[in-house]
Specification:
- The complex is a heterodimer of chains A (480) and B (467).
- Chain A is of the alpha+beta class and 480 residues long.
- Chain A has helices at 21-33, 90-106, 140-154, 218-222, 226-241, 257-269, 274-278, 339-345, 379-383, 435-441; strands spanning 2-7, 36-54, 57-75, 78-84, 124-130, 160-178, 183-201, 204-215, 244-245, 249-255, 299-301, 324-328, 331-332, 353-354, 363-364, 368-371, 388-401, 406-418, 421-427, 430-434, 442-445, 450-458, 462-469, 472-479.
- Chain B has two domains: 6-219, PmbA/TldD superfamily (PmbA/TldD fold, 2-Layer Sandwich); 231-466, no CATH class.
- In chain B, 23% of the residues lie in helices and 37% in strands.
- In chain B, the strands form four sheets. In chain B, strands 7, 8, 15, 16, 17, 18, 19, 22 and 23 form a nine-stranded mixed β-sheet that branches. Chain B has a six-stranded antiparallel β-sheet with strand order 3-2-1-4-5-6, sandwiched between helices.
- The chains are: A alpha+beta (480), B alpha+beta (467).
- Chains A and B meet through strand 3, strand 4, helix 2, helix 3 and strand 8 of A and strand 2, strand 3, helix 2, helix 4 and strand 4 of B.
Chain lengths: 480, 467
């Protein structure tokens, strides 16, 4: 991966730009003349490709070009937004969008604070995270060959009824111009390969999903042993055919890196999103500086973690990215912020603004979220003290009610732990709990921590994320 | 809301792509296009925080040559030639499906109620007034309640579908939607409820979802102190709570492809009883005013009403043209034809198979909520679940969490639980003793289509695990 950042003096050639800078500057000036205190134009051009195969045969391959632009105007302390695929219509939307913002502002009660943005460095530059192997140049045949590696590993057993494989890549090019003089261009790529193995025996149907990917081009996929991924998925699917339904109740839980990542994403990451905190919809409201977890627990969110599926060079408000330490030794230290929430809480923005694409406005979002490693050597050491519990692996997703602080996540497969040993395989294991209780129940972490499988996060808009950590033990969780 | 001539421009742009297809020499092609415009208000922390508007659109083009297909999508039709070339190149690498040809023109019924001028005429200022009204209504229902999330939106969409075989379908749809997350914090105990409603026509000034959101935030306050012990128990689910699980598990189980590939828990059960004998499931692609109904499906085949499960017996499957041809060609089924069930999720992907307006009905008289509670006796009433998307569509197994759950004893609600695990197998539960409520409400879906569901009481095979 090569990161090429080029500071310029604000003058860019129009070649390679989707925005006509002169026209955009005029439009932004017009917004000011209509009474906007701030306006921005962000355009995102996506070059993307998805491929789906089943049992080694191509089902569909979809190349696509998408272009979207969002105009965001802050006037009288309220937002007006206009999103469109018609870039040429920008100047026609300035007055009406400013008027909309003012109409919202009129409804604000005298006791309410007008919205404003925290100040940030005004930068004119181009930042391009260049992939070693630009994924836009990867031929369909090569993608199919790599997908077939998963298929070869996963097939070849009478109980495997289908192996679906998928591919997804995107080149994201973003341009942002603001009334403050920000003029930034950045680009990067993401690549993902995945498989779904379905097994059936005597009417019992189970499936197991495997994924590999990250920020970058073809090299991200090539670094994985895809045949082995397929073989592991096959073994897991066959194990699930023999798995029992999980016991229900409050039990000790050991989570693998995948599940630890989803846990920290759902249970802590979402309640740390400052737009939810400001809206009164987070159980972590007012808890900055307080001890909310076991001192073993340190959690970071870091979009600069190169290779992570949630990595990005610049946030969607043009703010430089950095690592955020959300919890340090059990103490809540920082929320994820964009410029509006940073102003609300009187802190510096920390590069947490992300939009799904050019047709959506930025929200506060996670990137690569990880819990740091602890002191245990390995999973065996974590299991030693567990008389009766569950070891859960892989993720089928999760969900959180940030206001109540209750969350749920589901494992792909699991084992019963009896007297410190893994005994019987389990299926359909889900774990739920309350953020402020469970963080205190984390009582063991292995030393090695890393990002696990790539994922997606929905919050009205879908964005790619990376999650991970070490293998984690929770002394008591609601397992079902 | 919709700019003058939007439909004409959409069609003109579609014809640019059609010309590129014709010029490519490909045997068959079809394309879909849409252009939508809308306004939306976001509500947070009890106030309107953002007004947004805009328009978006795009085209998806599919080419078919000797049973091989390729697809590409684009926004700017100046790239039509390139997109068609890409689709043709992909078709050449795709396997040939014997018998796969695009459908030809057939008469299709018109479906009314898909567009409402009153929605088109709504201005952003009208929406602001409606949002003001919603916020006032919530406060009037409970002074302590705060709308912590959600919003109001309207949209109008011009769509077109055309193919090389003479199908040309254009039309306009409108939609009006409201969603509210209502939170209630009393003595540090926060409860909340999300409820939403949408329609092709103008919603009533004060939709029923507003009162429901406040009600569920209220009734889940003051949770009971209970022992954490899992119990097998009857569960009564409101339509809102049942829909995410039902839509995750049932529609995909009824697609022909999953049936014949034996990836559905109902595979090999055609003609057999799969649900309680009082239950039926039908898909009505011609539903007046439906959010997913219409004259034609995503491939241009006329939509229809089809009974999928009658009196508990499985007697139908959902097919698109391509899926049907592929499964016949690969020998998994002797004959299969499109049931007008190709759904197009947008311009970025080719049509897939799915339901449109799926109804769960009973041959017995639907019961009121009070009667359902009495019938249940002891059990739980669940209004929403977390993690429905983690349910297993291959098996019907699910294990989710709820913070919107009431304990019922002797047919009376005795209080709420703070949190509980909820697990079981939905297919098996629906094959046990099931009683449906009388009030059918349209719900959104994790899969394609809309779910028309009453409150559902399931007596068997479910487990509640209070936290």
């Amino acid at each position: 991966m090569v990161m090429a950042a080029k500071q310029t003096d604000g003058h860019h050639p129009t070649v390679g730009r989707y925005l006509d800078q002169e026209k955009v500057r005029k439009a932004l000036d017009a917004a000011r003349s209509y009474g906007a205190s701030y306006a921005e134009v962000r355009v995102v051009a996506l070059t993307e490709s998805t491929v789906a195969m089943r049992d080694g045969i191509l089902e569909k391959a979809i190349p696509g070009q998408e272009l979207g632009m969002t105009l965001r105007i802050l006037a009288d302390g309220a937002w007006g937004v206009h999103s469109t695929t018609d870039l040429a219509s920008l100047s026609d939307q300035i007055e009406s969008t400013t008027r909309l913002a003012k109409a919202v502002a009129k409804r604000r009660a005298a006791s309410e604070r007008p919205k404003a943005l925290a100040e940030v460095p005004i930068i004119q530059d181009e930042t391009h995270w260049r992939s070693k192997l630009d994924v836009r140049h990867t031929e369909l045949d090569q993608k199919m060959e790599l997908m077939n590696d998963i298929y070869r590993g996963a097939s070849g057993h009478d109980d495997i009824v289908s192996v679906r494989t998928g591919w997804s890549d995107e080149h994201i090019h973003t341009e942002l111009m603001t009334t403050e003089g920000m003029d930034r261009v950045w680009s990067f790529q993401r690549s993902l390969i995945h498989g779904m193995v379905t097994a059936r025996r005597e009417g019992e149907v189970v499936s197991y999903r495997t994924r590999h990917g990250g920020q970058g081009g073809l090299e991200v996929i090539q670094e994985a042993d895809l045949v082995q991924l397929g073989e592991e998925a096959q073994r897991a699917a066959l194990r699930l055919l023999n798995a029992e339904r999980a016991p229900s109740g409050k039990l000790p839980l050991i989570a693998d890196k995948d599940l630890t990542g989803v846990y920290i994403h759902e249970a802590l990451g979402h309640p740390c999103e400052a737009d939810l905190v400001a809206a009164g919809d987070s159980c972590l409201d007012g808890k900055l500086g307080q001890k909310i977890g076991n001192e073993l627990v340190t959690v970071v969110d870091d979009p600069t973690m190169m290779g992570g599926y949630g990595a990005y060079p610049v946030d969607d408000e043009g703010v430089n990215t950095r690592e955020k330490v959300l919890i340090k030794n059990g103490v809540l230290t920082e929320y994820l912020n964009h410029r509006e929430t940073a102003h609300h809480f009187g802190v510096e923005p920390n590069g947490g603004a992300r939009a799904q694409d050019g047709l959506h406005h930025p929200l506060v979002r996670m990137s690569n979220t990880m819990i740091h490693g602890g002191t245990h050597a390995d999973i065996d050491e974590l299991m030693e003290d567990v008389q009766y519990g569950v070891y859960a692996c892989g993720t089928r997703g999760g969900q959180v009610d940030t206001g109540r602080g209750s969350f749920q996540f589901a494992a792909q497969e699991a084992w019963l732990i009896e007297n410190g040993e893994l005994t019987r395989p389990l299926k359909d294991v889900s774990v739920s709990g309350l953020t402020l209780e469970i963080l205190k129940n984390v009582d063991g972490l292995t030393r090695d921590a890393s990002l696990a499988s790539p994922g997606f996060c929905g919050k009205g808009q879908t964005v790619p994320v990376g999650d991970g950590g070490p293998v984690m033990r929770i002394s008591e969780a609601l397992v079902g | 809301m919709l700019p003058e001539g939007a439909e004409d421009r959409l069609l003109a742009n579609a014809n640019v792509i059609a010309d590129a297809c014709k010029g490519s020499g490909v045997q068959q092609w079809d394309l879909i296009g849409f252009q939508s415009y809308g306004h939306q208000l976001d509500i947070e922390a009890g106030k309107i925080t953002m007004a947004a508007g805009g328009g978006e659109g795009g085209f998806g083009v599919r080419v078919v040559d000797e049973g091989r297909f390729g697809f590409a999508h684009l926004v700017d039709v100046s790239g039509a030639q390139r997109a068609v070339e890409q689709a043709v190149a992909i078709a050449k690498k795709s396997p040939s499906i014997e018998g796969f040809v695009l459908p030809s023109e057939q008469p299709a019924e018109q479906v009314s109620g898909r567009m409402d001028r009153a929605v088109l005429d709504l201005s952003p200022e009208d929406l602001l007034e409606q949002a003001d009204g919603l916020l006032s209504e919530v406060k009037s229902l409970d002074e302590r309640a705060v709308v912590t999330g959600g919003g109001v939106g309207v949209s109008a969409t011009a769509g077109c579908l055309m193919n090389s075989e003479g199908i040309l379908s254009t039309g306009m749809t409108t939609s009006h939607g409201i969603g509210l997350q209502v939170s209630l914090e009393v003595d540090g105990e926060l409860t909340s409820s999300y409820q939403g409603q949408s329609s092709r026509s103008l919603l009533p000034e004060m939709p029923a979802c507003v009162a429901r959101a406040v009600h569920w935030a209220q009734v889940t306050q003051n949770p009971l102190r209970v022992e954490s012990e899992a119990v097998d128990t009857p569960v009564l689910m409101t339509s809102e709570g049942f829909s995410p699980l039902f839509s995750m598990v049932v529609p995909s189980a009824m697609t022909g492809e999953k049936m014949v590939r034996k990836e559905s828990f109902w595979a090999d059960k055609m003609g057999q009883q799969v649900l309680n004998p009082n239950l039926s499931v039908h898909d009505n692609g011609l539903l007046e005013g439906g959010m997913s109904s219409g004259s034609r499906d995503g491939e241009g085949v006329p939509r229809r009403r089809q009974n999928l499960i009658e009196n508990g017996r499985l007697n139908g499957m959902l097919w698109s043209t391509r899926d049907a041809a592929q499964q016949v060609a690969e020998g998994r089924i002797e004959a299969a034809h499109s049931t007008g069930s190709a759904s197009s999720g947008g311009h970025q992907s080719p049509p897939s198979t799915g339901c449109t307006e799926l109804f769960l009905t009973s041959s017995e008289q639907g019961k009121s909520m009070d009667d359902l509670l009495k019938h249940m006796g002891d059990g739980y009433l669940v209004n929403s679940v977390m993690g429905a998307h983690t349910a297993n569509p291959s098996s019907g197994d699910f294990s989710v969490t709820t913070s919107s759950i009431l304990k019922v004893e002797g047919g009376e609600i005795v209080g709420s639980l703070k949190q509980a695990g909820f697990s079981g197998n939905l297919a098996k539960a629906l094959n046990g003793a099931v009683v449906l409520g009388a009030d059918v409400r349209r719900q959104g879906s994790y899969s394609s289509g809309s779910m028309h569901l009453p409150d559902v009481l399931m007596m068997d095979g479910l487990r509640i695990n209070p936290a």
